[in-house]
Amino acid sequence: MPDIDDLDHRILSLLRHDGRRTFSEMAGEIGLSVAAVKRRVDRLKELGVITGFTVEIDYAKLGWGIEAFTELRYAGTTPVSEIVRTATEVPEVQAVFTIAGDPDALIRVRVRDLDHLQQVIDHLRRTGNVTGTKTLMVLGSWTRDARSRLRPGHPS
Predict the structure, then answer these.
(1) pLDDT higher than 50, residue 77
(2) Residue 129: what pLDDT?
(3) Residue 39 in contact with residue 30, Cβ under 8 Å?
(4) Average pLDDT for residues 79-108, to the nearest whole number?
(5) Sign of the C-alpha dihedral, residues 141, 142, 145, 151?
(6) CA–CA dist 63, 2 (Å, integer)
(7) Cβ burial 88-117 (10 Å sphere, 16+ → b, else e)
(8) What gap in Å lies between CA 36 and CA 42, rounded to an integer?
């Protein structure tokens, strides 16, 4: 486990809230020089703590306003790699979570409308590997970036 101090946690918190924040802005907020902040960010990237920078998108404004989770069940002999392959070949699938127990996987899908959702579910069922599904539509959501929970007592 890398040695991460409170200043590193503060930098991570600032970047989590705005990945485009400049070194200069962060330096002013945490009381370090710009060069010191850059060195720390570079170190966090080298350690693999920072794995990339991303953007949040309002999919509803792009016409993909429906989000749903679908439980997938497979035959007991299906390898996990096949479960992942089946789901990731569908462009509407945003995430795949293989899980222990029943069901075998949980996928997050993003679609235009209910007809589109039905087409995606039907497509997954036709792969021949999926033995059952259960779909839950998202009405609203709130998330805390799981990667931000770096250690107990530091939920930033």
Answers:
(1) yes
(2) 86
(3) no
(4) 93
(5) negative
(6) 42
(7) eebebbeebebeeeebbbbbbbbbeeeeeb
(8) 10
